[in-house]
């Protein structure tokens, strides 16, 4: 007996099938009355829409579903999607910030909360998690990324999928996850958004694909393609990677969406005209066409006549095109069936059952914010006592709107408690606050130019006057807290920047504050890793707070005054200078390491002093002191399959509870190709009471040392070298102790 999907497939006309491949934005929704019908309404009436994204309410989604059912001869329902990137209504810290918690269970919890909020508004799929590994702070979308490391990103990807989907994407309060952007979107040339990536296949397999493999293994139901080309083929036409690697190698059997007008963009990529672009995308495995409607326009003719474009190297018969349409339509319907929509088109669209409370959301958002903050420096200034007289200065001292960060499409900045209020509530004492230097005006585009150092004004006052105001306050205080950083529009999509560093006026402000001689705490609110330069030297304490969501400033206040202990660890290396990007702790070995045999030959830069402060991947301080003992291995030589255990004692010498993330790296000194000088293979997070000592053990297995050797994607082999490997264990990627282990053949 045929299942629901096959019964529908047997009855559908080609036009109805093509309609299912069309994914449209809700835009202004359904305009009723005398107003002219929107494109969406016309398409719904004609049965030409498979799904809609960006509806802003349950009522609006329900109205669209009713309209879609009325327009569909076979009563095939829509599904609804939304960009829920770091929370839906309750905005959590940016993904790059949350990744600094190094806590997959927290990622899972925030994803589950976001899923419940989104599901309560009729969403069935979220366009998240974004799992593009990125090592280039110039790229604005690093804000949405899990950072630079494939292992950490993989654990985050799996955790987010578990949080969104639970055991069943049709379960109450759950949604389908959509892994994006497939793939290597985080490695564009020069950090320019949308630019292409030319990579060794080994890099693709070893760095950029693992989070997708992990997300698929966790059961992700959907994947979105990326805008860029990889090794000369735009991802929307990359059959080798989509039908080949994604479906073939990982066994992914869900739905593949285009990105926004991604099919149409094949024409600009130089792979069009439109009929050719459409044939390529469908052949590559792009099941749904988001926004551009090129499938809707081109496929009817292609299904009748096929295509033979010798100049573009595309030849598909009409029957082959119809097979491809069937393949994608079947996937769309199967996805709807998994969502429970074929049984009940209004699933999730009637008044929601258990909607999570905003209060619970605030609590979780505050914990997540505090866990995302990374303490980079602390010369015995923090935590502050509640009696301290604080001068709170800088553009983000009272800011709400930037705290949400980029891609908070359903967030509301009124939900943000700004830093001055958070401090006042926590300490019972309002801090003296000055705006200092402001870069954040509504006309942000203009301001974006200002960040490179020209004059800044606010309320008719010059930069000098603003600095004077800050200084006057600072002089009367015990401690200065300077809240500086980037505006939310300075990071995000289409927001690459040449020089990932703090705006020049912020440097001026910090220099002036430093000159007062008062203890100076600098809090950086940002969407990307910034080179802090002189600011790191000037600060007596330095917190990297990212854009922390609705409770971002409260999380910062908790850390400042010791209501929470800092536990964040960088998921990206912070460069010492903007010119040294792209950058990763996992840099490849070269013939002339630095420092190495030939001291004379520098692998670094002549104009970057050795003393320049770079904060490495995995770095972050706590309050108090964590002592690491000497690590030991259960055996020094092991056969593959034989268990090896690395054990290390850690002790909390501080006066309060601490969360420590013990990180295990490896290196492979004799391999078949150049390898990263070290790479993360495992980590564990432990909570230690004051004075507590614990042994932490890692099970090590030979599989962790496998790496790809890939003259081409198809001939890729995951290999492992018998012989010596090194293990490096410690609190970050730099400050480690090493051990040697030999794998017997
Ligand atoms: C972004 C995607 C997003 C889509 C829909 C695109 O511009 O690249 O990440 O999901 O828009 O809003």
Can you walk me through this structure?
This protein has 745 residues and is an alpha/beta fold. The protein folds into 3 domains: 84-330, Glycoside hydrolase, family 3, N-terminal domain (TIM Barrel, Alpha-Beta Barrel); 364-560, Glycoside hydrolase family 3 C-terminal domain (Rossmann fold, 3-Layer(aba) Sandwich); 626-743, Immunoglobulin-like (Sandwich), CATH 2.60.40. It is 30% helix and 18% strand. It has an 8-stranded parallel sheet. A 6-stranded mixed sheet has the order 13-18-17-16-14-15. It has a 5-stranded mixed sheet with strand order 21-29-28-23-24. Helix 6 (104-120) packs antiparallel against helix 15, helix 7 runs parallel beside helix 9 (210-217) and helix 16 crosses helix 21. The radius of gyration is 27 Å and the shape is globular. The protein starts with a helix and ends with a strand. Residues 437-455 have low confidence and may be disordered. The structure holds beta-D-glucopyranose (BGC). Beta-D-glucopyranose (BGC) binds at residues 83, 127, 180, 259-260, 493.
User: Total number of helical segments?
Assistant: 21
Q: Could you give the distance between the termini?
A: 53 Å
For the largest beta-sheet, the strand count, sense and barrel status come to: 8 strands, parallel
| Structural domain count | 3
Q: Return the CATH architecture of the largest domain.
A: Alpha-Beta Barrel
Inertia-based shape: globular
Strand order of the largest sheet: 9-6-5-4-3-2-1-10
């Amino acid at each position: 007996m045929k299942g629901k999907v096959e019964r529908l497939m047997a009855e559908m006309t080609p036009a109805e099938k093509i309609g299912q491949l069309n994914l449209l934005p809700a835009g202004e929704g359904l305009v009723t009355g005398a107003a002219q019908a929107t494109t969406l309404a016309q398409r719904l009436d004609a049965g030409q829409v498979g799904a809609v994204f960006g509806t802003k309410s349950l009522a609006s989604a329900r109205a669209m579903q009713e309209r879609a059912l009325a327009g569909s001869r076979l009563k095939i329902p829509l599904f609804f999607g939304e960009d829920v990137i770091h929370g839906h209504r309750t905005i959590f810290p940016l993904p790059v910030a949350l990744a600094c918690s190094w806590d997959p269970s927290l990622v899972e919890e925030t994803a589950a909360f976001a899923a419940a909020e989104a599901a309560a508004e009729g969403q069935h799929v979220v366009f998240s998690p974004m799992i593009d590994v990125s090592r280039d702070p110039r790229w604005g979308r690093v804000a949405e990324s899990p950072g630079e490391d494939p292992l950490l990103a993989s654990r985050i990807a799996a955790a987010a999928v578990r949080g969104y989907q639970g055991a069943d994407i049709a379960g109450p309060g759950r949604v389908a996850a959509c892994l994006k952007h497939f793939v290597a979107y985080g490695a564009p040339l020069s950090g320019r958004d949308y630019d292409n990536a030319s990579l060794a296949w080994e890099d693709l397999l070893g760095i950029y694909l693992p989070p997708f493999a992990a997300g698929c293994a966790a059961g992700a139901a959907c994947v979105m393609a990326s805008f860029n080309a990889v090794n000369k083929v735009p991802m929307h036409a990359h059959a080798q990677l989509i039908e080949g690697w994604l479906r073939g190698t990982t066994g992914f059997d869900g739905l593949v969406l285009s990105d926004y007008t991604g099919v149409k963009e094949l024409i600009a990529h130089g792979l069009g005209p439109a009929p050719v672009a459409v044939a390529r995308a469908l052949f590559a495995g792009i099941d749904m066409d988001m926004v551009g409607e090129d499938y809707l326009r081109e496929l009817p003719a292609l299904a009748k006549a096929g295509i033979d474009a010798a100049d573009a190297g595309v030849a598909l018969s009409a029957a082959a095109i119809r097979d491809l349409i069937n393949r994608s339509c079947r996937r769309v319907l199967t996805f709807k069936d998994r969502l429970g929509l074929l049984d009940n088109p209004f699933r999730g669209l009637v008044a929601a059952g258990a909607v999570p409370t905003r209060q619970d959301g605030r609590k979780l958002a505050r914990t997540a914010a505090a866990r995302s903050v990374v303490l980079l420096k602390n010369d015995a200034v923090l935590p502050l006592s509640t009696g301290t007289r604080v001068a709170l200065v800088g553009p983000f001292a009272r800011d709400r709107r930037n705290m949400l960060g980029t891609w908070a499409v359903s967030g509301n900045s009124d939900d943000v408690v700004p830093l001055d209020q958070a401090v006042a509530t926590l300490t019972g004492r309002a801090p003296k606050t000055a705006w200092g230097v402001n870069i954040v005006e509504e006309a942000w585009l203009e301001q974006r130019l200002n960040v490179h150092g020209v004059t800044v004004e606010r309320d008719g006052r010059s930069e000098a006057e603003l600095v004077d105001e800050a200084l006057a306050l600072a002089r009367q205080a015990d401690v200065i807290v300077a809240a500086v950083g980037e505006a939310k529009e300075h990071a995000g999509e289409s927001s690459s920047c040449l020089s990932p560093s703090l705006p020049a006026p912020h440097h001026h402000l910090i220099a002036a504050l430093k000159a007062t001689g008062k203890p100076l705490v600098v809090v950086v609110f940002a969407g990307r890793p910034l080179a802090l330069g002189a600011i790191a030297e000037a600060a007596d304490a330095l917190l990297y707070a990212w854009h922390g969501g609705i409770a971002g400033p409260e999380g910062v206040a908790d850390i400042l005054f010791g209501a929470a202990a800092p536990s964040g660890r960088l998921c990206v290396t912070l460069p010492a200078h903007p010119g040294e990007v792209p950058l990763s702790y996992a840099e490849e070995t070269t013939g002339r390491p630095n420092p190495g045999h030939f001291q004379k030959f520098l692998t670094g830069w002549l104009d970057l002093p050795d003393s320049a402060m770079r904060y490495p991947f995995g770095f972050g301080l706590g309050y108090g002191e964590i002592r690491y003992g000497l690590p030991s291995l259960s055996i020094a030589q092991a056969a593959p399959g034989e268990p090896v255990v690395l054990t290390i004692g850690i002790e909390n010498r501080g006066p309060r509870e601490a969360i420590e993330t013990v990180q295990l790296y490896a290196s492979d000194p004799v391999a078949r190709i150049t390898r990263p000088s070290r790479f993360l293979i495992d980590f564990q997070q432990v909570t230690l009471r004051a004075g507590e000592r614990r042994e932490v053990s890692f099970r090590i297995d030979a599989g962790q040392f496998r790496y790809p050797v890939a003259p081409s994607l198809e001939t890729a082999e995951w290999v492992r070298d018998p012989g010596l490997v090194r293990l490096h264990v410690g609190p970050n990627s730099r400050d480690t102790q090493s051990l040697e282990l030999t794998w017997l053949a």
